[in-house]
Recover the amino acids of this structure.
């Protein structure tokens, strides 16, 4: 019987110390978790520009976690919009580069053709006459363009431009305009 009491006496402190150890381990784990969360919020506050305090008169006031999260979400959304905008700009620049490359090839072909036949075109009309032909074509096109286009909004402008192209820029219409301008200039020149 004395052995039983003895064994009880030795087991009790062991049970308590085991509980204490578990409690202490749990407390430490909880503290570690809280510290990690606090560090996360501190890091967000340091990284996100809109979380920086501007009012120095109140000192370095701590923002609430809800505000830090909201400002972080807003900042990420802003970055996504900026990224999309930059991607659109890159796409536009790529198209510009492609157009310039095509123009370069065309100009190189024109220069090569001129170098191969340097005497060709000595009897060509003057630049002034060429410009008058171009101006006559453009003036004629602008009259119909101006009458057809509405500029109340960009959407309406876009719709009108396509409608004008379909109606007034058909090959036959353009051909008739060019022939009319050339006849008019011919009668002026001769």
């Amino acid at each position: 019987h004395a052995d039983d009491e003895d064994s009880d006496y030795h087991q009790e402190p062991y049970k308590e110390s085991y509980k204490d150890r578990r409690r202490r381990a749990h407390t430490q784990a909880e503290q570690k978790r809280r510290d990690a969360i606090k560090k996360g919020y501190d890091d967000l506050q340091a990284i996100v520009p809109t979380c920086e305090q501007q009012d120095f008169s109140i000192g370095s006031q701590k923002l609430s976690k809800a505000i830090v999260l909201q400002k972080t979400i807003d900042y990420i959304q802003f970055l996504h919009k900026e990224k999309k905008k930059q991607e659109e700009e890159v796409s536009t620049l790529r198209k510009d580069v492609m157009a310039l490359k095509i123009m370069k090839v065309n100009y190189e072909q024109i220069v090569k053709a001129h170098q191969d036949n340097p005497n060709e075109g000595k009897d060509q009309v003057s630049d002034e006459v060429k410009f008058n032909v171009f101006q006559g074509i453009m003036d004629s096109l602008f009259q119909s363009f101006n009458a057809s286009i509405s500029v109340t909004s960009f959407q309406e402008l876009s719709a009108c431009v396509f409608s004008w192209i379909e109606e007034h820029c058909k090959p036959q219409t353009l051909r008739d305009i060019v022939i009319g301008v050339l006849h008019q200039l011919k009668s002026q020149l001769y």
Notes: Helices lie at 2-47, 65-116, 127-148, 154-168, 171-189. The two ends are 141 Å apart (CA to CA).
